Amino acid sequence: MPPQVCPYVFGPVPSRRLGRSFGIDLAPYKTCSYDCVYCQLGRTTVKTVERKEWVPLEEVLSQVKQRLSELSEPPDYITLSGSGEPTLFSRIDELIDGVKSITSTPTAILTNGSLLWDQEVRKQVKKADLIVPSLDAGSEELFHCVNRPHPSLSFSQMVEGLIKLREEYEKPYWLEVFLLAGHSAIESEIEQIKKWIKAIRPDRVQLNTVVRPPAEEYAYTVPKNRLKKIADSFDPPAELIADYQKKFVQFHSADMESHILSILHRRPCTLSDLSESVNLHPNAVVKYLDHLLADNQILVKVSAGKSYYTKPS
Ligand code: SF4
Hints:
CATH topology of the largest domain: TIM Barrel
Strand order of the largest sheet: 1-2-5-6-7
Oligomer: single chain
Number of strands: 12
Bound molecules: iron/sulfur cluster
Radius of gyration: 19 Å
């Protein structure tokens, strides 16, 4: 019997910061409060700040339970992220409670941080074991240029939310700073970002840059040596998000093509990423990819000197 399709969960996939991450998608594809120029999923199709039950809670939990039972080893994190902004899901607190009733694996939320000014959102997300919000600019001007937020959002409001969350949340809080060459990775902007980080007081600061094909071609990669210098100039030094290195385990799925498609639906991957995700030798993965390419279900894009498999937009 073919495996049941589980559109709201994916993975485990190798995550550059969370090890083997089992993902839960709480908003439809590219439903987000931002439209970041660097987004690896392409341009936002539904830019919104409306919070609602975008996906059916009970169905999501049932898929989490089913997929986890198929794994031979638990993942490192259950991650609320995926192909849209997870805090737009109005029942995220109930979702976390439900996940905790199924597994003891820690839960993480990767959020753009845009809605944390809202007390109700903060109250809900505090149930997670780890929160990783983003801060990609140090000024209102760059915020609009890089994140292209919903018109109702302002930089000062967003930063205020990041600061308030830290005051109220004692569990691990990591801040991701995504830098773009020629835009935010310039001295004046970095100094502003550092000033805000002092006010936010995250446990860790992680620097990231474009490594997968971005929404806009002008979202340029910060070269590694430059990013390292920027990281070292932080006090304490920031971390560069390292490439995934951990060993992987068997993922049981008879329908490998649809599994590969479900991973590529969320993010572009290299052959090596996919090989680790589906636990198949690259030579075997290539056969599936060749078929999907011939069928025009996927395409190849080159970014920062690497080839990425991705779904056509
Ligand atoms: S990078 Fe994240 S926050 Fe930005 S548009 Fe994409 S999904 Fe939204």
